[in-house]
Write a structure and sequence with these properties.
With 258 residues, the protein is of the alpha/beta class. The protein has one domain (4-247): Phosphoglycerate mutase-like (Rossmann fold), CATH 3.40.50.1240. Helices cover 40% and strands 10% of the residues. The protein contains 9 helices and 6 strands; from the N terminus they run E-H-H-E-H-E-H-H-H-H-E-H-E-E-H. Strands 3-2-4-1-5-6 form a 6-stranded mixed sheet. Strand 2, helix 3 and strand 3 form a beta-alpha-beta unit. The longest helix is centred in the middle third of the chain and has 21 residues, at 158-178. The radius of gyration is 17 Å and the shape is globular. The mean pLDDT is 93.
Length: 258
């Protein structure tokens, strides 16, 4: 029997999503389409009668902006929003800023798919010569993290995303769910995939085929042990959702950028 409802949401399309670039920890605002996705998501959730008690986001603007727009569309702007770097997107290391399709042309689609989708393969780490190194590590938001800045990741596999996410899930999110509060996690493709892997017991191999499009809410109904009682539900027009999933999967295919 379902006791709790948990909603996961990959943020609306960001500027670098539109350009098919690895965004990762570089801070980006939503694109015009991403704003609409977040607003449409909020309207859908309102129409279906959902109400949130608490929202968790990463400390990246596209995650926070999505949460604000969803709550505004629902008429629930007063709902508290709690932010943590532990819900950040996966750190893609030296791949940050690069175009996925161009990388597929250069390294092959299979290599890029391993970097993007595998569970335990870490991309090449970022170093101080990288054009976005200082933009990330000199950002004031990381001086307030719960680990020293020098211990923050320089690249992550999906496994490492889960490793840094789980302590926050257990200490901060779970107690709120157990109080009976309906929680929305407005985060990123990989932080949401990592949490899905944990909650649904998805195998290391099968997680590679789990795709979350931007701006589509995912409903998990959980029992008293926070185990799913039915398959996850991607809410909205199912034909549009499948088209959006195919679009995300095609991002890593070899085609010249335009």
């Amino acid at each position: 029997m379902s006791k709790y409802k948990l909603f996961l949401l990959r943020h609306g399309e960001g500027a670098w999503n539109k350009e098919n670039r690895f965004c990762s920890w570089v801070d980006q605002k939503l694109s015009k389409d991403g704003v609409k996705e977040a607003q449409d998501c909020g309207r859908l959730l309102k129409e279906q009668g959902y109400k949130f008690d608490l929202v968790f986001t990463s400390i990246l603007s596209r995650s926070i902006q999505t949460a604000w727009l969803v709550l505004e569309a629902m008429g629930q702007e007063w709902v508290p929003v709690v932010k943590s770097w532990r819900l950040n997107e996966r750190h893609y290391g030296s791949l940050i800023g690069l175009n996925r399709a161009e990388m597929a042309l250069q390294h092959g689609e299979e290599k890029v798919k391993l970097w993007r989708r595998s569970y335990d393969i870490t991309p090449p780490p970022i170093d101080e010569s990288h054009p976005y190194f200082l933009e990330i590590y000199n950002d004031r938001r990381y001086t307030t993290c719960d680990v020293p800045k020098e211990n923050l990741p320089r690249a992550e596999s999906l496994k490492e995303v889960l490793d840094r996410l789980l302590p926050y899930w257990g200490s901060t999110v779970v107690p709120e769910i157990r109080k009976g509060r309906t929680v929305l996690i407005s985060a990123h493709g990989n932080s949401c995939r990592a949490l899905l892997k944990y909650l649904e017991g998805i195998s290391d191999k099968d997680i590679a085929s789990v795709t979350l499009p931007t701006g589509i809410p995912v409903l998990l109904e959980l029992d008293e042990n926070l185990k799913p009682v039915k398959p996850r539900q991607l809410l909205g027009d199912q034909a549009k959702i499948q088209a959006a999933i195919r679009k995300v999967e095609d991002q890593g295919k070899a085609k010249p950028s335009t």
